[in-house]
């Protein structure tokens, strides 16, 4: 089922009941987040694909999340191809290299979907795809937005000491003032 992103995290009673029902009463297998613009020029809203099995008796154990960043086409109104035709679609005729994967995630989605009950369960939540246990989703009020569970790693950045920066600024200011005095002297 393709849904607007708002369905994944909306606070209305209907949104909450739908998400709870998918997780508790059916078997929610996956949430595949699509990039905004994938349905342009018709609709620019961000969307997701919810993959579930209708069981009426539950069965959700782990939910697989995938953050699709690119589908092989530009995300503007023109939707022009970003790769040659043989490298487009979910099953391209030619293998994609790392740079091409950045322009078309669809083959990776299929490959990782096949591993969702195996190796995918071990992937860290910092990866493009990962699994989340049902208990974690229930604890978050059945919020199904990928960003609720994805972990962002912030790299430490070393900065110079503020006093060192101020000293450099003072030197630059002296040079500017010296230059200004020279210009004033030239002008008379």
UniProtKB/TrEMBL annotation:
Domain DNA methylase adenine-specific, first and last residues per copy: 2-152
Record-level GO BP terms: DNA restriction-modification system; methylation
Top-level taxon of origin: Bacteria
Catalytic activity: a 2'-deoxyadenosine in DNA + S-adenosyl-L-methionine = an N(6)-methyl-2'-deoxyadenosine in DNA + S-adenosyl-L-homocysteine + H(+)
Protein keywords: Methyltransferase, Restriction system, S-adenosyl-L-methionine, Transferase
Molecular function terms from GO: DNA binding; N-methyltransferase activity; site-specific DNA-methyltransferase (adenine-specific) activity
Keyword Secreted: no
Region (Disordered): 79-102
Matching Pfam families: N6_Mtase (PF02384)
InterPro entries: DNA_Adenine_Mtase (IPR051537), DNA_methylase_A-5 (IPR003356), SAM-dependent_MTases_sf (IPR029063)
Compositionally biased spans, kind Basic and acidic residues: 79-88
EC numbers on record: 2.1.1.72
Sequence similarity: Belongs to the N(4)/N(6)-methyltransferase family.
PANTHER family: SLR6095 PROTEIN, TYPE I RESTRICTION ENZYME MJAVIII METHYLASE SUBUNIT
Protein name: site-specific DNA-methyltransferase (adenine-specific)
């Amino acid at each position: 089922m393709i849904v607007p992103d708002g369905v994944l995290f909306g606070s209305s009673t209907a949104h909450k009941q739908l998400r709870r029902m998918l997780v508790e009463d059916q078997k929610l297998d996956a949430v595949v987040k699509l990039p905004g613009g994938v349905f342009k020029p018709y609709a620019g809203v961000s969307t997701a694909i919810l993959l579930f099995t209708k069981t009426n008796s539950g069965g959700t154990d782990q939910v697989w999340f995938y953050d699709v960043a690119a589908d092989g086409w530009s995300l503007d109104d023109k939707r022009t191809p970003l790769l040659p035709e043989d490298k487009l679609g979910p099953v391209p005729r030619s293998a994609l290299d790392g740079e091409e994967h950045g322009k078309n995630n669809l083959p990776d989605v299929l490959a990782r979907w096949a591993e969702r009950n195996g190796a995918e369960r071990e992937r860290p939540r910092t990866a493009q795809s990962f699994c989340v246990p049902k208990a974690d989703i229930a604890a978050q009020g059945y919020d199904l937005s990928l960003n609720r569970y994805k972990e962002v790693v912030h790299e430490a950045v070393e900065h110079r000491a503020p006093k060192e920066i101020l000293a450099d600024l003072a030197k630059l200011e002296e040079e500017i003032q010296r230059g200004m005095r020279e210009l004033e002297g030239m002008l008379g």
